[in-house]
Write a structure and sequence with these properties.
Number of helices: 11
Number of strands: 0
Largest sheet: none
Radius of gyration: 19 Å
Order of helices and strands: HHHHHHHHHHH
Distance between the termini: 16 Å
Helix content: 55-70%
Length: about 240
C-alpha cells in the first residue's frame, strides 16, 4: 500500500520512466541507484538476448506478409524493451524468403516477450522511486504487479487481500480456460494469432504453461467458436493489467 502523502523524490518521474523504457536500468541510473540499474539491465536484456538466440531472431517473421510494416512490432510485448526491439528490427527485421523455425522458437519468443513485460514493471518502479513514494508494506507496488503478471491475484494475496486474490485468479484464469475450450486450443499459438497472443501473454504463467503443454495443435477442420475463444483468451490477459 502506498502512502497518500507523496514526498519530493530524487528525480523527475517521467524522465525515469522514459529512460527505463528505452534502456532497462537507465531510469534507476539517472536516480543514482547504480547496482539496481546494472542488475535490471543484465536481467532484462539477458532474457531478450537468450530469446533472440533461441529463436534466431525470427519472431517478427511469424507475421503474414500483409501485416508486416514499420510499426508491426509496436503491439508486441517486446515493445516494453524498446531499445532491444528497435535494434532487432534494424538488424533482422522481416525476411523475404520462407523460414524453417528453429526447434526452440517458442521458448525464444516467450523469453523476448517476457523481457518486455518485465521492463514495463521496472518502468513503474522507476516512476515510483523518482516520486519518493513511501511503501508501508513489505511488497512494493511494482513487485506486486510483477507477481500478479506471473500468477493473477498473487500480488493481492501477498498484500493480505486474500478474497480479492482468489476472485481475480478465478475470474481471469476461468475466462482464459473458457477461451481455450471454445477455440479448441487454437489460441495457444503465436504464429497463428500474433496480436491476440500478445494480449493473452499478459495473463502470465497460466497462458505460458497452457501453450507449452497443449499449444500448437494441428487444425484439421473448422472450429466453430474459434473467434470467440481467441478474443476471450486475449481479454483475460488484458484484464490482468488492472
Amino acid at each position: 500500500m502506498v502512502s497518500s502523502q507523496e514526498r519530493t523524490g530524487p528525480g523527475d518521474p517521467t524522465v525515469a520512466l522514459l529512460l527505463t523504457w528505452f534502456v532497462p536500468g537507465a531510469g534507476h541510473l539517472y536516480l543514482g541507484k547504480v547496482k539496481l540499474a546494472v542488475v535490471a539491465f543484465l536481467l532484462i536484456e539477458g532474457l531478450y538476448f537468450l530469446g533472440y538466440v533461441l529463436s534466431e531472431g525470427l519472431f517478427l517473421n511469424v507475421l503474414p506478409a500483409e501485416m508486416r510494416g514499420m510499426f508491426a512490432g509496436m503491439l508486441a510485448p517486446e515493445v516494453g524493451n524498446m531499445s532491444a526491439l528497435l535494434l532487432h528490427m534494424r538488424t533482422i527485421g522481416f525476411l523475404d524468403q520462407p523460414q524453417v523455425w528453429p526447434s526452440n522458437m517458442d521458448l525464444g519468443m516467450t523469453l523476448t516477450a517476457a523481457s518486455g513485460v518485465l521492463n514495463f514493471v521496472l518502468m513503474s518502479k522507476a516512476h515510483l522511486d523518482a516520486r519518493g513514494v513511501k511503501v508501508e508494506r513489505q511488497i512494493d507496488p511494482a513487485g506486486a504487479a510483477a507477481l500478479s503478471w506471473l500468477v493473477p491475484g498473487l500480488g493481492h494475496w501477498l498484500q493480505g487481500r486474500r478474497t480479492r486474490a482468489v476472485a481475480v485468479f478465478g475470474m481471469l484464469v476461468g475466462l482464459f480456460l473458457i477461451g481455450c475450450v471454445l477455440a479448441e486450443g487454437a489460441n495457444l499459438d503465436r504464429e497463428r494469432h500474433f496480436y491476440y497472443w500478445a494480449g493473452q501473454f499478459l495473463l502470465g504463467l497460466p497462458a505460458i504453461v497452457a501453450e507449452f503443454v497443449h499449444g500448437h495443435a494441428r487444425v484439421t477442420q473448422e472450429i466453430r467458436y474459434v473467434d470467440a475463444g481467441i478474443v476471450l483468451g486475449c481479454v483475460a490477459g488484458m484484464l490482468n493489467i488492472l
